[in-house]
Each structure stands twice: as structure tokens, then as C-alpha cells.
Design a protein that fits this description.
The complex is a heterodimer of chains A (about 850) and B (about 625).
Chain A (H helix, E strand, L loop, with lengths): L2 E6 L2 E6 L4 H7 L25 E2 L18 E3 L3 H16 L4 H4 L3 H7 L22 H8 L23 E3 L9 H10 L4 E4 L6 E4 L15 H5 L5 E3 L10 E6 L8 E7 L2 E6 L11 H11 L9 E4 L2 E4 L2 H12 L7 E6 L4 H14 L3 E5 L10 H8 L5 E4 L6 H4 L4 E6 L4 H4 L3 E4 L8 E4 L5 E4 L12 H11 L11 H8 L23 E2 L2 E2 H4 L23 E10 L2 E7 L1 H6 L5 E5 L7 E9 L4 E7 L3 H7 L6 E2 L1 E6 L10 E7 L2 H4 L1 H9 L3 E8 L8 H5 L4 E6 L10 H10 L7 E5 L2 H11 L7 E4 L15 E4 L2 E4 L6 E3 L5 H8 L3 H6 L15
Parallel strand pairs in A: 1-4, 14-15, 14-16, 16-17, 17-18, 30-31, 30-33, 31-32, 33-34
Antiparallel strand pairs in A: 1-2, 3-4, 5-8, 6-7, 9-10, 10-11, 12-13, 12-18, 19-20, 21-22, 23-24, 23-28, 24-27, 25-26, 25-29, 26-27, 34-37, 35-36
Helix pairs in contact in A: 9-14, 10-14, 10-15, 22-23
Chain B lengths: L2 H15 L6 E5 L2 H5 L2 H14 L8 E4 L11 E4 L5 E4 L4 H13 L8 E6 L34 H6 L4 H21 L11 H10 L6 E6 L8 H8 L1 H15 L3 E7 L3 H16 L4 E4 L4 E10 L8 H8 L23 E5 H13 L1 H5 L9 E8 L5 E6 L4 H8 L9 E6 L5 E4 L9 H6 L8 E6 L4 H15 L5 H18 L7 H15 L3 H5 L2 H18 L2 E7 L9 H5 L5 E2 L7 E2 L9 H5 L5 E7 L4
Parallel strand pairs in B: 1-2, 6-7, 6-10, 7-9, 11-15
Antiparallel strand pairs in B: 1-3, 3-4, 4-5, 8-9, 11-12, 13-14, 13-15, 16-19, 17-18
Helix pairs in contact in B: 3-4, 6-7, 6-9, 6-12, 8-9, 8-10, 9-12, 16-17, 16-20, 17-18, 18-20
Classes of the chains: A alpha/beta (about 850), B alpha/beta (about 625).
The complex binds flavin mononucleotide, iron/sulfur cluster (5 copies) and FE2/S2 (inorganic) cluster (2 copies).
One iron/sulfur cluster binds next to helix 17 and helix 19 of chain B.
């Protein structure tokens, strides 16, 4: 197109006609703030951050939507523009939970909790899986003198977890429209769009269908482009920013799509399209199932050898030796290799040579997605009539009845199966991203795979096994195959794999290959069942009516669920300050929760659970009328504060509920009670009315100032300590470690007034036996579960406590359930 | 068929309709009339005619709304003497008496007679043109409303219809655009952009095909001018659409109309069918070589779909969401083709302009605002209705003469024009000339023509809140300033009304308004702050009361209260108690501040007063 010249901030610039003012500014190196524009998409004009002034044009046009014109004179900076942008950003952020961005303690808090909490809904960056890679956060933090004075209008939308792989927290959405626009661009017909108007407007599939029914192909483009944590990849969500990316090829089907493997600590946590063009798209398997297959915890990771009827682990050398020795006896044309059509060319090539050149037998590659039942008749017959007597199967590819006819079976595979359990030798295989080499797709194009990532334990790429095996069988020259390229060079013109009849990238219904190496994919990645992929039905287990009945359950603030549970024994003996240990199901973790209230007459207890990780999510997924497997307690030493006359009770997070029993008891005893609450923002305060009943005054502190006072509980505690008429003679603070630690530091000058803090280290048994809850108090080791949970804050070794809490972060991330709302029942093992 | 032959037929049709010496009855049966019971009246008339054996000799026609909405249902009866008498507030019982008195006995039923529309004068009854509500009006767009059968195209033709099209075809596209430019007509959809200029842009864009669109999405709460025109005289707009299509070189015209207007849709569908039958749409119209199709597209009633780019997205089958301009529709509009979009009223004016000439049209209105403007007059005013006035007319003339002054002789506190995008003009500015420039200066806009009169008891903060609650719900949600700004404005107004606003709230309001005005993507967000800004500008003292911790409550003054129980019966929450003939009292806890009590009291005993919040 014709070139044009315009002037931006006094500098002339030549651009193609058709360029936008934003692009022209970029060409000059002038950065105009822009949130809703994207180089791969046409202009949209929703965020209104890129406003500029143009001579002769009324008002403040947006640079992204305004076509550059010859002779145009543009200003990107002025006092008015600065103010408009600041105010627009403030408006935008008022629709997005932003307390962390204005919090005075952000730096120290994020050091304290280096990874975000795995909350149900993200009520601020500290609870947001997107934190380490959030564009929005970056823009806001980079805005000098950011003023987010408007209170957050939190929309209280329920996190949508019903779809496989993708979950949505609409409370974070800034409606930049990138997601539906990229979907539109890639698929021609977007599966999602904005529905409803005004404050109800949100991203959804039309007619509020599930995404599975909307025509969404689960390409993941929207997940990748969303600048906020709104649309997220359930599996990758809590892994943080990947530390590396590898350009590779998906080998789950003969399409052989190119993609990036996004890795963290050398594990694939996600895959990503190489660009945002239609031809770059991936299917649900390549985008979402791939990382989960690799991280499947049920892998074959050691070579196994059958000895006196049992499969026992052996060394790699022993395994190769045994296999070689066995196969040596089948060089008479009775050997068959069964492999997979969609595999590394190197692997296929060496298998072919092994079968024909070395063992003088046959080979057969099974088409993508097929399983044992698809074995060709001709082969089945040959096994049936004894022509074939030995098989090496690279997967679960042989029906059980044929297995019985064989004299020898070797299996080389990644996942266990009935077939491998019946084999004579089993070799652990590296798969997919754990291998490197080349792949020929159905169209004939050769693409690169790898470099390889570490495989579990003793697993090796298949061609490594084959090479060693061939040498064992006398093919000495195979020694030259040291690296993949050594094999690649010898391949020549190998056939392309048979194409799929369906198009997995265009649909998730009846289009995805059902199997990988003969294993049902939906057995390994249960979320795939939502697409109708077949799976092995679980053995029915009788559901029993045992456990503790949940009478009532309510989400009283985002992520805070109150449970009213029948537990007469606990209700009878509970005292303020005590806690219980709860197990959602028989196989769940034991987790401690402070008792908020109890009613000996009705035999019920009340406690509040903050959804913040695997176990709490499992519990919060339970509904009223259902049962909790175990509730044991009351545990811990009760704390009696009634010796004091004036008590200040400070609560934050779950602590708001936890200070309640003290307020109640003190009020009953006729003592003066001052309640100080802390939350990041106004919408996270709960129990206000309940507490008001038992106190003289209630003070609110929020990090964003949305309820008046900006700050933390210690500000109020200090004021109370300094006051003449409200000076407490005892204090208690319950909340996150940082809150209690800060309260401790701030009140140190008044160490004559005890500050009781509830220590919440990781607990396992809660009875003083396991030692997990060790804390150092006053220079001595105590067990929080029996000696505590209350200690005088001024005596606690806070640094040690913080470091111990961080110890299990990685394990916790890996334990996050992958089945959306089925969380409580998703336990796979 | 050529126009000559059509006119022949039209003359015959009109002669049959207005046959001298033959009685007939016209019933105002537009949506407004129907809501007031016109269809029951029509049935009662038919029954009465039947009773008197007049069914065959006295035809009953449905006509559009003549604008005197306060007096609906309206019935016009013509006797054998050719005198046409208009009756007001007719119900089934009155209908029977009209037939008996006027048609059987030949005596006009004076109790409900409003005026003589045509024919010999009647003692004590004004003529139509002398009605105080009609006298200051100039009826151009509404020229046929109430006088023709809107289902009969030939009536329209007989009153000069399609002469404008004929003239346009003779002038050629360029000449037509020039004629419209010369007329000084400005868009009546809200923004007032010069229509001729807009047509010129679309005409000059070389891309083909081109489209014209009639915007009949009329979404302002309380506005019903477009509906009345389409229901009462669809061809006035359709002729304008044909002319526009011809002038810009379009081949298809779309009418985007809200599906809440079923009668208008039916009238349009019928009218388009007639046009086709007479060869006025289709190929080679009137032998000129001009080919044109007209399509109706029904909208789902989102206010924002009245915004032109959102409207076009909606026609294309996408979500009705505005996009940034440029490119302007004249360059890239519907289906990315050059498109000209005009409002119903604009197009109805075009047909008159082409018929009678630009010079005639410039005789109305002011230098910069030519012609006339329709308004739907509503609120606390004696005579509500659909009016059409020359631009530049003093606001006072509209309120006092046409509208007959504020209800119950209260003072006029403010007049709201332009609906949710407009503002409130205070009572002391009643001498303001009503044209684009003066309204804008006063902080309001002409808008599409809503005009709501508010009396001295109106709470202006509540007025602002009402409009904000509308825009908050109707914001499409696309852009940040509008989506979030409306929510915050509404929230802040609520805290003000609750007497809980923090100091600095007014500055906060103004700041948000500025951001919305300057940075919103479309007209909705850019104008949504207007109700807040104008009430702040003229009635800041009311805001100050609230900010000083006062709230407004309804109180009954014991001295004035006669204990008539009217308020107690009217109150929807039963908050008012008291014994008959004893002063009544309002339970402030139960009161929802609806103000019905104040409206219902005949003794002016109820007032709406500021007081300390604590005092209950
Ligand atoms: C939020 C919004 C709503 C609108 N609604 C209408 C409407 O209901 N009817 C209308 O005719 N114009 C409406 N408009 C104005 C149109 O966008 C456009 O200006 C008009 O159709 C142009 O026609 P005109 O030149 O005849 O005025 C609206 C504009 C905005 C910003
Ligand atoms: S999306 Fe970004 S800014 Fe928003 S909470 Fe998450 S990390 Fe923070
Ligand atoms: S979900 Fe993400 S990409 Fe989509 S509109 Fe919201 S913030 Fe933008
Ligand atoms: S995953 Fe792909 S197909 Fe599905 S909504 Fe997102 S972009 Fe569209
Ligand atoms: S279509 Fe899917 S499974 Fe096949 S190669 Fe592409 S991403 Fe992998
Ligand atoms: S100003 Fe309002 S209605 Fe217009 S695009 Fe923005 S959000 Fe939508
Ligand atoms: S980047 Fe221009 S409006 Fe968002
Ligand atoms: S939790 Fe195991 S010792 Fe305390």
C-alpha cells in the first residue's frame, strides 16, 4: 500500500497506508499504553488506554483504531492524556480485584509467599495463578503514581470448572476481548463471545452452553492470549511462569502439529501454538492431554524380567541381555514386531531393521488411535496358527487371547497394562517430549522433535533399546547409532503414516484418536471423557453412609465456606482456641481447622474453610447433606482469655471466624472486647454482624482502603494500646503468618500485654506424634498441635516458621485435582 | 405502473374515503391509542352502528396518532354535513352515545368534543388549528398522522406522496444531495450531523454495493416519535429511504426496528408490499433505471443497538457492539460497504423536503437548525403527546402553550431533553430557544426527542440516578470508561441518596464523568454522564443537602391534611395510616420514596423535604 508520512510527538514517520496510529508510534519507538490491541488481531478499541490527540480531530481518538493518514499530527503525551489514562486504568482495575497492587506490604508478602495460594477464586494477585506472567499486573505496577482509589466492584461470579482442561474466573476479566477475537480469527466462527450487557457482560459460549457443546476445539488459544488469569489451563495454572520453551512436534497423531513445549524444571507443563494463525492451531490432545500424559504418575519406569512366574525389576543390561537371548531363538521368521505408526522416524526405522534384517521376521505399525482389537486379521491368524510365536509389542497392542498362543512376549511401553503384566520382558520407554529425532507427518513433511527432556527413572527412547538389542543379537555395526542423527541419516524415503479419517483440530466430538500406544487416552487423562472418548469403567464401589453430616454449607465470602457439621462429641467438649482435623474422604489428607462455634445442645460444630489448595478444595466441593469422612477433635490446648478485662481480638482470613469463640466467651464473662478485622478488600469481610453482637467496637482495616482505613490490624492494635480508655490487657491475633508476625513486631514495645497468636504450621496427625508441626517458641521446640496452637507472639521464631511452610509447595501444585468440579471424587489412585 | 396512473387511483381511493355527504368514523389506533383502549372503543362503535343499522353506511377506519395523547382514545366523527368533529377520552360507553347523538340524531356530542377538524364551525368548539396544543406546531414529519389510513398507500400518494421521489429522480443523485444539503436538514437521531453532507460522503465513496439504513431502533425510555410516524404514516419514511438510496447510489435499504414495535413492523411490511405492487421498489423504479430493495430487520431491544456501528453489527448477525470510527459508515459500514444511516424522522423530513423544495423547508427553524423537530412531551404536564415544532421555539411555548403548563399548577423545576444522553434544563431557562446550539450550551442535547417536564417536588439526584440506572444496564460493556464508569456513578449516586456519601464525592463524580465523556468508545458512554453533569451544574445545592447528611423524605403537613385517605389508598406499601378526616402520617420505615402520595393529594399536604438523616 502507498506510504504516508505523519508526525507523532514532533517526529516525522513514514508508514504503509493502512497502518494504525499505534503502529506508526511503535515504528518510532513511542510506547502508547495499550491493553486490548494485539499484533495478530484487528483493532478493537475497548481498553481506551491508547487515547491520543490528533490535530483537527475532535476529542481523544484511540491510537489503535485510528488509521494513520498523510500529514496527520499526533500527540501521545499531554497532561489531559495522562489524566485520562490514569483514570481509565483506575476504572478498569476497579472491576478487577486489585488489593495486592496497592498493598503497602506487597513486597514482603510476596517474599513470604513466593507462589500464589491455590485459591478457588482469585480475589487478588496473591491468589492468582497468573501472577508470575500477568500482563495486566505488569502494566499496572509500571504505571507511576498509580491511583486505584475507586473501590473494587467485585462481581462474585462463580468460577466455572465444569469444562475439561479450561477453567474460568470471570471476576478477573477486563473484557479486552482478546480471547473471543483470537478464537474468531483461528476458527472463523468463534466458540465464545461476550454475552449480556453492562456489568453482566462476560465471556461465554453462546446460549450459555458448556464449552464442550459450543464448538470449542480446545485449542487453548484463548488461554494463551488472555492477559489476566480469567481463562486458565487447569493443569498449568499453578505452575507459574514456564522457565523454558522447546519448539517440537506433537506425535499423538499423524497430523504432527508443530508446537512449543512449555517447561518448568524440565517438565512439560503446557504446550502452546507456535503462532496465532489458523494453521498453527492444536487439538485438545496436543494442547492439553500431552503434558498430562507425560506427567502421569503411573509410568513403567524400570525394566522387568519374569523369573519364576513373577515380574521383577532388573538392570537395563540384564533386561537387554534376557530379551536378546530369548529372541535369538526366533530367527526363523516367527518373530513379529508390533509398533505405532506415529512415532519418531528413527524409532520406526530401527524397529523395521530389527524385525526384518536382524531377526528375519515381520513388523506391523498400528495406525494412530488404534488398539489391540484393531490388529489385522492376517496377523491374528498367523499367531493363531503358530506361524508367529514371538512378539515384541510397543504398547498395549495385542489381545489377551492371542497372547496365550505365544511362546514369548516382550513389551516396551510407558504405561502398565494387562498385556505388559503378562509379558516375559518389559522395557520402560521414553515417549513424546522425552525423545528426540524426526517425525514424518501424514502429508509427508519431516519435522523435528526434541531436544529430549528427562524421562522417568530407567525409561529410554525406544530406538536406544532396539540398538542395544540388535547389538546383543550380533549386529555389531549398530554401534554407530550413538545419537538420533546417526539414525536419521540412514533412513532414506520412509513412508508417511496413514492419515486420520477425522480432523482433531476442528472438533472434539468423534474426532480425537481414542488411544495412544493402544492405551485408552481417557484412562490416562480423565478430563478427555467429557469429549465422549471411551474409557475403562471403574469398578463400582458401594457408597457408604458413614461420616459426619454437613447440615449447612455456605460461601460467606469468596473462598470462605462455613460448614455446620453434626459432631456431638466435639460440640460437647470444645473450648475457645481449639481445632479439629478433617478428612474429606477416606483417602484424603488430614487438615486442621479452627473451631468457630459449637452447639452442645444440637450437637453441631461450625468451622470456616478457606479454599486455598487441594484438600480445602476437596472439602469445599462437598455439599450440604453430604458427609465428611472424618472429623476428629477437639484438639490443641484451649486458650482462656477471661482473666483479662479488656481484650483486643484481631482476625484476618480464616481468623475472622476463629476469633469468634473468644469474643463470645469474653462477652459472656462481661469483659470488654474490641474486634479488629483485616482483609485485602471490603468484599472479603464476613461475620461482621455475628461479631458485632459480642464486642464493644469493631474496626476494619483493608489493604486497598475500601472500608475507610488503609492498612493492617497492627495499626489499630497500636492505637488501642496507646489509648487511655481502650487499652487492652490481652490480645489475640489469628490470620496468616505475615499478619501475626507484623502484629508481633508492631506491639513489641508493649510486651507486657500478651499477644496470643495461632500458629499454623503444616500438621499431619495433630496428636503430637509425627513432629511435622514443630515450632520454636522462646528458644524451645514445641509441637503446635498439642502445645499450641496458641503461643505468645513475642516469643516465636517467625523466620523458621515461614521457611517450614514453604517446603511442600511443588508437591501441592502437582496434587491439584484436574477434574474441575468433580474435585472430591477425582482421586485417581 | 407510472406515477400518473398511481395518482389516478389515489384520487379515486381518497374520494371513496372522504366521500362528501357520507358519514365515517376514524379511530386513533396507534400503539398509544390502543394502550388507552382504542380497540375496545372500535368494537363498541361497530356494535352501536350495528344496533342502528348503520354498519354498511358508516365505515370505521383506524388511523395513526395525531399527537394529542393526553386525550386518548380519540375518535373523529364525520356526519352527513361533512363536519369532522374530534372527540377525546372516548370509552365504550361514550362510543355508543357518539353514534347515537352525532350520527343518528345529527347532534355532535358536545361533552366530549375537542374540536372541529374540518367543516362548519360549531358554537363553543375551537377549530383543530386553533387548539392551544396545535397552534404553535408546524407539522411536516407528522403531516399525515391521524388523517390518513396508514394501511393505504394511495392515501399517502393523494396527499402529495412520492412526488418527492419523482423530483429526486429528475434532479439526479447529485442534485438530490445538493437539495438536501441546501435544506439545512440535520440528523434527527441525536447528534444532528448535516444530512446532505453525510449523503455526499457515501455518494463519493466508489466501493459498491452501497446500503442505506433507516434507524428505527428508538431506544430512549419515553421516546415514541419514530413509532408514531411508522404506525401512522409509514410511507413518509419509506419515500425518504428511497430518495436516500437513490441519492447515495445504494441498492438495498434496511429498516432496523425494535421487535417491541409489532404494529409498526406490520405497517411497514404492508407498505413495502404495496410499493412492490406499484413498482416503487424492485428493478427500474418509475422507469428511471434505479433499482432498490427494502428489508426489515428486527432488533432485540438493546439500547446500544441504536448506535449506528452496533446496529450494523447486529444486522450482520454479530453481537450489537459499537466499533470505533473512523472508518465512518460512509466509507465502510454495513458488510464493510459504504453505508448511509438516517433516523426515521430525518427520512420523513426528506420526503417532504423533496416534495416541497429546500427553500420551503429553510423557511422553518433557525439559521443553523433548520426545519422542525418532533418531541414526545411527557412528565408532570397537563397535555402530554407527540408534538412537532419549528426549531428555535422557546421552551416556554412548548411547556406553557402546547403542554398547558405544569400539572396542578406547580412550578416547573426542570425539563429533561435527550433522555439518558441528555440533560436537565432548569426552570429559570424556560426562554431558551429549542435548537441544537442552545440545548448544547445549556448542557443538554436535542437527542431523539424525549422531553420530560419535572415539577418543583422532583428530586434531581433521583432523576440523575434514574437515567444512570438505565445506562448502567444498557452499556454494552465493551469499553472500560462506560462499563465501569456507569457502575461507579450509580453507586455514588446511591450513597448520596442514602445520606452516606463521603466528602469529595462530587469531585469523584465529576472526574468519572470527564473520563467517560472523553474516553468512551461510543455515544452511549460519552453522553451517559450528561444527566449527572447537568443536575450538578444547576442543582448542586440538592446534592449538598445530601452530602450534609440530610435525606429527603415525604411528609404530610398536619394542618393541610384533610384526612381524605387518597394517599393512604395510593401508597403501594401501605406506609400511610390515619383515621378518616384526621391528619395522616407516613411510616418512614415502610416508605419506598415512590412519591405516589404526593401525586395523589388534592390538598398539597404532602411535601418532599430535606431533613436530618437521624430524624425518622
Ligand atoms: C447509544 C446510542 C443509541 C442510539 N439510539 C438511537 C435510536 O434509538 N434511534 C436513532 O434513530 N438513533 C439512535 N442513535 C443515533 C445513531 O447512532 C445515528 O446517529 C443515527 O441513526 C443517525 O441518523 P440521523 O443522521 O438521521 O440522525 C443512537 C446513538 C447512540 C450513541
Ligand atoms: S490477573 Fe494479574 S493482576 Fe489480576 S489478580 Fe491475577 S495476577 Fe493480579
Ligand atoms: S477472558 Fe481474558 S482475554 Fe477474554 S476478555 Fe477477559 S481478560 Fe480479555
Ligand atoms: S480453546 Fe480455542 S476453540 Fe476453544 S474457545 Fe478458546 S480459542 Fe476458541
Ligand atoms: S492434531 Fe492434535 S494430536 Fe494430532 S498432532 Fe496435532 S495436536 Fe497432536
Ligand atoms: S461507550 Fe458503552 S455502549 Fe459504547 S462501546 Fe463503550 S461500553 Fe459499549
Ligand atoms: S489498545 Fe487501543 S483501545 Fe485498547
Ligand atoms: S501435627 Fe504431627 S506432631 Fe503436630
Amino acid at each position: 500500500m502507498k506510504e504516508i508520512t505523519l508526525t507523532i510527538d514532533g517526529q516525522p514517520v513514514r508508514v504503509d497506508g493502512g497502518a494504525s496510529v499505534l503502529e506508526a508510534a511503535k515504528a518510532l519507538g513511542i510506547e502508547v499504553p495499550s491493553i486490548c490491541s494485539h499484533p495478530d488481531l484487528p483493532a478493537y478499541g475497548a481498553c481506551r488506554m491508547c487515547v491520543v490527540e490528533i490535530e483537527g480531530v475532535r476529542g481523544f481518538p484511540t491510537a489503535c483504531t485510528t488509521p494513520a493518514a498523510d500529514g496527520m499530527v499526533v500527540r501521545t503525551e499531554s497532561e489531559t492524556l495522562r489524566r485520562l489514562r490514569e483514570n481509565t486504568l483506575e476504572l478498569m482495575m476497579s472491576g478487577h480485584p486489585n488489593a495486592c497492587l496497592v498493598c503497602d506490604y506487597r513486597a514482603v508478602c510476596e517474599k513470604h509467599k513466593p507462589t500464589p495460594s491455590k485459591a478457588g477464586t482469585s480475589t487478588r494477585c496473591g491468589l492468582c495463578g497468573n501472577r508470575s506472567e500477568c500482563d495486566l499486573r505488569e502494566i499496572v505496577l509500571a504505571t507511576p503514581g498509580r491511583n486505584l482509589g475507586l473501590p473494587t466492584i467485585y462481581s462474585h461470579k462463580k468460577v466455572e470448572r465444569d469444562d475439561p482442561f479450561i477453567e474460568r474466573d470471570h471476576n478477573l476479566c477486563i473484557l479486552c476481548g482478546l480471547c473471543w477475537r483470537i478464537c474468531d480469527k483461528i476458527h472463523g466462527q468463534p466458540a465464545i463471545s461476550i454475552v449480556r450487557r453492562g456489568k453482566e457482560a462476560r465471556i461465554a459460549a453462546s446460549f450459555d452452553r458448556s464449552w464442550v457443546d459450543s464448538g470449542c476445539t480446545f485449542c487453548g488459544a484463548c488461554v494463551d492470549i488472555c492477559p489476566t488469569g480469567t481463562i486458565s489451563d487447569r493443569f498449568a495454572k499453578w505452575h507459574g511462569h514456564p522457565d523454558n520453551k522447546i519448539l517440537s512436534t506433537c506425535m499423538l497423531c499423524p497430523e504432527g502439529c508443530s508446537f512449543y513445549e512449555m517447561t518448568e524444571n524440565n517438565q512439560v507443563v503446557a504446550t502452546r501454538m507456535t503462532g496465532f494463525a489458523a494453521e498453527d492451531r492444536l487439538c485438545a490432545l496436543g494442547r492439553f492431554a500431552y503434558p498430562q500424559l507425560l506427567q502421569d504418575r503411573d509410568r513403567i519406569n524400570r525394566p522387568l524380567l519374569r523369573e519364576s512366574g513373577e515380574l521383577i525389576p532388573v538392570s537395563q543390561e540384564e533386561a537387554v541381555d534376557a530379551l536378546g537371548a530369548a529372541l535369538d531363538g526366533f530367527r526363523d521368521g516367527s518373530f513379529l514386531f508390533l509398533g505405532n505408526d506415529t512415532e519418531l522416524r528413527e524409532t520406526k526405522h530401527l524397529y523395521r531393521s530389527l524385525a526384518t534384517d536382524v531377526l528375519k521376521g515381520k513388523y506391523h505399525f498400528m495406525a494412530a488411535g488404534s488398539g489391540a482389537a484393531d490388529l489385522p486379521e492376517t496377523i491374528a491368524e498367523k499367531i493363531e496358527n503358530g506361524t508367529i510365536r514371538a512378539v515384541l509389542s510397543a504398547g498395549d497392542l495385542l489381545p489377551a487371547e492371542l497372547r496365550e498362543r505365544l511362546a514369548f512376549l516382550g513389551v516396551i511401553d510407558a504405561f502398565p497394562s494387562a498385556l505388559s503384566a503378562s509379558a516375559d520382558v518389559v522395557l520402560p520407554a521414553s515417549i513424546l517430549a522425552e525423545t528426540t529425532g524426526t517425525f514424518r507427518d501424514a502429508a509427508g513433511t519431516v519435522k523435528g522433535v526434541g531436544p529430549a527432556l528427562p524421562a522417568p527413572a530407567h525409561a529410554r527412547p525406544e530406538w536406544h533399546w532396539v540398538r542395544d538389542l540388535a547389538q546383543r543379537l550380533g549386529a555389531d555395526d549398530w554401534r554407530r547409532y550413538r545419537y538420533a542423527p546417526d539414525v536419521t541419516r540412514t533412513i532414506g524415503d520412509d513412508p508417511a503414516p496413514a492419515p486420520l479419517r477425522t480432523r482433531p483440530r476442528d472438533s472434539v466430538k468423534d474426532a480425537l484418536p481414542a488411544r495412544f500406544r493402544g492405551h485408552l487416552l481417557a484412562d490416562r487423562v480423565p478430563a478427555l471423557r467429557a469429549f465422549g472418548l471411551p474409557f475403562t469403567p471403574p469398578e463400582a464401589t458401594a457408597t457408604e453412609k458413614r461420616g459426619f453430616l454437613i447440615r449447612r454449607k455456605e460461601e460467606i465470602a469468596p473462598n470462605f465456606h462455613s460448614f455446620l457439621v453434626e459432631a456431638p462429641e466435639i460440640a460437647r467438649y470444645a473450648r475457645p482456641g481449639q481445632f479439629i482435623m478433617v478428612m474429606a474422604a477416606e483417602t484424603s489428607e488430614r487438615v486442621p481447622f479452627t473451631l468457630t462455634d459449637w452447639d452442645p445442645e444440637n450437637g453441631t460444630i461450625l468451622f470456616i474453610i478457606e479454599e486455598t489448595g487441594r484438600s480445602s478444595r476437596e472439602l469445599c466441593a462437598l455439599r450440604a447433606g453430604e458427609r465428611i469422612a472424618h472429623v476428629s477433635g477437639p484438639l490443641g490446648a484451649p486458650l482462656d482469655l477471661t482473666g483479662a478485662n479488656t481484650v483486643a481480638l484481631a482476625g484476618g482470613c480464616y481468623g475472622i471466624g476463629a476469633i469468634y469463640p473468644f469474643a463470645k466467651a469474653l462477652h459472656k464473662a462481661g469483659k470488654r472486647v474490641f474486634v479488629v478485622l483485616e482483609a485485602s478488600s471490603h468484599f472479603l469481610i464476613y461475620f461482621e454482624d455475628e461479631l458485632r453482637e459480642f464486642c464493644e467496637a469493631i474496626y476494619f482495616t483493608t489493604r486497598d482502603g475500601s472500608m475507610g482505613r488503609r492498612g493492617a490490624v497492627h495499626d489499630v492494635l497500636v492505637e488501642l494500646l496507646q489509648s487511655d480508655d481502650k487499652r487492652p490487657d490481652a490480645m489475640a491475633a489469628i490470620g496468616c503468618t505475615l499478619m501475626m508476625q507484623m502484629a508481633t513486631e508492631a506491639t513489641r514495645p508493649w510486651s507486657d500485654v500478651p499477644l496470643h497468636v495461632a500458629l499454623n504450621p503444616i500438621m499431619i496427625d495433630g496428636t503430637g506424634m509425627c513432629g511435622a508441626c514443630r515450632v520454636s517458641v522462646g528458644g524451645e521446640t514445641s509441637f503446635a498441635c498439642v502445645d499450641g496452637p496458641f503461643f505468645d507472639g513475642h516469643e516465636v521464631d517467625w523466620a523458621e516458621l515461614a521457611s517450614r511452610r514453604g517446603a511442600f509447595v511443588q508437591v501441592e501444585v502437582e496434587a491439584m485435582p484436574q477434574n474441575g468440579t468433580l474435585a472430591a471424587h477425582a482421586c485417581r489412585h | 405502473m407510472n406515477l400518473f396512473a398511481i395518482r389516478e387511483r389515489a384520487r379515486a381511493a381518497w374520494a371513496a374515503f372522504a366521500l362528501p355527504g357520507h358519514p365515517r368514523i376514524l379511530v386513533g389506533a396507534a400503539t398509544c391509542g390502543r394502550a388507552a383502549g382504542a380497540m375496545e372503543v372500535k368494537e363498541a362503535l361497530a356494535a352501536a352502528l350495528g344496533e342502528h343499522g348503520l354498519t354498511d353506511s358508516v365505515p370505521v377506519f383506524e388511523v395513526g396518532c395525531n399527537g394529542l395523547c393526553y386525550a386518548e382514545p380519540l375518535v373523529e366523527v364525520t356526519g352527513r354535513d361533512n363536519r369532522r368533529v374530534l372527540y377525546r377520552n372516548v370509552d365504550a360507553r361514550i362510543a355508543a352515545r357518539l353514534v347515537e347523538s352525532h350520527l343518528v340524531q345529527g347532534e355532535p356530542f358536545m361533552k366530549r368534543a375537542l374540536c372541529v377538524v374540518e367543516g362548519n364551525p360549531l358554537e363553543g368548539l375551537p377549530k383543530w388549528a386553533e387548539l392551544p396544543m396545535i397552534r404553535p406546531q408546524e407539522r411536516i414529519v407528522t403531516r399525515n398522522l391521524g388523517f390518513i389510513d396508514p394501511g393505504e398507500m394511495l392515501h399517502y400518494v393523494n396527499r402529495g406522496g412520492y412526488t418527492g421521489l419523482e423530483r429526486a429522480l429528475a434532479l439526479g443523485p447529485k442534485g438530490t444531495v445538493e437539495e438536501v444539503t441546501r435544506s439545512g436538514l440535520r440528523g434527527r437521531g441525536g447528534a444532528g450531523f448535516p444530512t446532505g453532507l453525510k449523503w455526499g460522503f457515501a455518494r463519493k465513496t466508489p466501493t459498491e454495493p452501497k446500503y442505506v439504513i433507516c434507524n428505527a431502533d428508538e431506544g430512549d425510555p419515553g421516546a415514541f416519535m419514530d413509532r408514531s410516524v411508522l404506525e401512522g404514516d409509514p410511507h413518509a419514511m419509506l419515500e425518504g429511504l428511497l430518495i436516500a438510496g437513490y441519492a447515495v447510489g445504494a441498492t438495498v435499504g434496511y429498516i432496523y426496528i425494535r421487535s417491541e414495535y409489532p404494529l409498526a413492523v406490520a405497517r411497514l411490511a404492508q407498505a413495502i408490499e404495496d410499493l412492490r405492487a406499484y413498482g416503487l421498489v424492485g428493478e427500474n423504479i418509475l422507469g428511471s433505471g434505479f433499482a432498490f430493495e427494502i428489508k426489515i430487520k428486527k432488533g432485540a431491544g438493546a439500547f446500544v443497538c441504536g448506535e449506528e456501528t452496533a446496529l450494523m453489527a447486529s444486522i450482520e448477525g454479530h453481537r450489537g457492539m459499537p466499533r470505533a470510527k473512523p472508518p465512518f459508515p460512509a466509507v465502510s459500514g454495513l458488510f464493510a460497504k459504504p453505508t448511509n444511516i438516517n433516523n426515521v424522522e430525518t427520512l420523513a423530513a426528506v420526503s417532504a423536503i423533496l416534495e416541497r423544495g429546500a427553500d420551503w423547508y429553510t423557511g422553518f427553524g433557525t439559521e443553523k437548525s433548520r426545519g422542525t423537530k418532533t418531541f414526545s412531551l411527557a412528565g408532570q404536564i397537563r397535555r402530554t403527546g407527540l408534538i412537532e415544532v419549528p426549531m428555535g421555539i422557546p421552551l416556554r411555548t412548548i411547556i406553557e402553550d402546547i403542554g398547558g403548563g405544569v400539572d396542578r399548577d406547580k412550578a416547573c423545576k426542570a425539563v429533561q431533553t435527550g433522555g439518558p444522553s441528555g440533560g436537565c434544563i432548569p426552570g429559570h431557562l424556560l426562554d431558551l430557544p429549542v435548537d441544537y446550539e442552545h440545548l448544547a450550551e445549556a448542557g443538554s442535547i436535542m437527542g431523539s426527542g424525549g422531553m420530560v417536564v419535572m415539577d418543583e417536588d422532583t428530586c434531581m439526584v433521583k432523576v440523575a440516578r434514574y437515567f444512570l440506572s438505565f445506562t448502567e444496564a444498557e452499556s454494552c460493556g465493551k469499553c472500560v470508561p462506560c462499563r465501569m464508569g456507569t457502575q461507579h456513578l450509580l453507586r455514588l449516586l446511591d450513597t448520596i441518596l442514602a445520606g452516606e456519601a463521603a466528602p469529595g464525592t462530587l469531585e469523584q463524580l465529576r472526574g468519572i464523568c470527564e473520563t467517560m465523556k472523553c474516553a468512551s468508545l461510543c455515544g452511549l458512554g460519552q453522553t451517559a454522564p450528561n444527566p449527572v453533569l447537568t443536575t450538578l451544574r444547576y442543582f448542586e445545592d440538592e446534592y449538598s443537602h445530601y452530602l450534609a447528611g440530610e435525606v429527603r423524605r415525604y411528609r404530610i403537613e398536619a394542618e393541610s391534611c384533610e384526612g381524605c385517605r387518597a394517599c393512604a389508598i395510593a401508597c403501594p406499601t401501605g406506609a400511610i395510616t390515619g383515621d378518616r378526616k384526621r391528619p395522616h402520617i407516613i411510616d418512614q420505615e415502610a416508605c419506598i420514596l415512590c412519591g405516589v402520595c404526593l401525586q395523589s393529594c388534592r390538598y398539597n399536604a404532602v411535601s418532599f423535604v430535606f431533613e436530618e438523616k437521624a430524624a425518622r
